[in-house]
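User: My instructor asked us to take a sequence, write out its structure as tokens, and then describe one feature of it. I'm not sure where to start. Here is the sequence I was given:
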Amino acid sequence: MDLATAFENINWFSIGIATLSSFLVGGIWYGPLFGRAWMRAFGFSEENLRNRSIPKTFGLSLLLAFFAATNLEMFIGLEADFTFGLIAGFFTGLGWVATFLGILYLFEMQTLKAYLINAGYCVLSLTTMGAILGAW
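Assistant: Let's start with the prediction itself. The structure tokens for your sequence are:
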């Protein structure tokens, strides 16, 4: 399939839902599940987080999640179903994102805990996105 055909067949509704799913997953992951551990791993305090620009942080995060969902939609293709989307999302997160985060964290001398928290979010978020995109 050529690129023009791929763009013509994009399901923008499913991309929107997949984009929003990354916020739901992230809110739970970096909130009640691992929020405190993530803050400790990176040396953040409540005050640090209050001083960031919420519109900038969340707006750009939403835009980046949209690009990720669109890319994943193009990657899994028109014939994908729930199972293929789920598996493709999982292996995208684990095989590409988590591996490159691992390389970066090694050179940045980050802790294993910090890596596992962030890589875990990426794998879970992309798996969820893939399942949503494949289902539609």
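For the description part of your assignment, you could build on this observation: Helices lie at 3-8, 12-33, 35-42, 46-50, 54-76, 82-107, 112-135. Try explaining in your own words what that tells you about the chain.
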